[in-house]
Write a structure and sequence with these properties.
little secondary structure, 77 residues, 13% helix
C-alpha cells in the first residue's frame, strides 16, 4: 500500500481524490481537521443545562458535610 497526502476542502460532504488514483482503487482514509467553533449558544436554556449537570449522580455524591465555620475569626482553627 502506498501513502500520499492530499489537502482538500469538503464540499457537500465530499472530498475529491487526485485523478492519478484509478477508479475502483481501495483506499484507507484518515481525516485530520481543524477545530471549528460549535453552534451559537443563542436560545440555549442555561437553567436546563445546569440542571443536567447532576444526571447520573447519587444522593451520596451530592451530600456535602455541613460547614459551620471556625467560629471566631482566628487563623489557627
Amino acid at each position: 500500500m502506498k501513502a500520499i497526502e492530499v489537502e482538500a476542502t469538503v464540499e457537500h460532504h465530499t472530498i475529491r481524490v487526485p485523478p492519478s488514483i484509478p477508479e475502483g482503487s481501495r483506499v484507507r482514509v484518515l481525516l485530520l481537521m481543524e477545530d471549528i467553533a460549535g453552534p451559537p449558544t443563542e436560545g440555549v436554556d442555561l437553567k436546563r443545562l445546569l440542571a443536567g449537570l447532576t444526571e447520573g449522580l447519587t444522593a451520596e455524591d451530592l451530600d456535602r458535610p455541613r460547614y459551620l465555620g471556625c467560629g471566631d475569626l482566628d487563623w489557627s482553627c
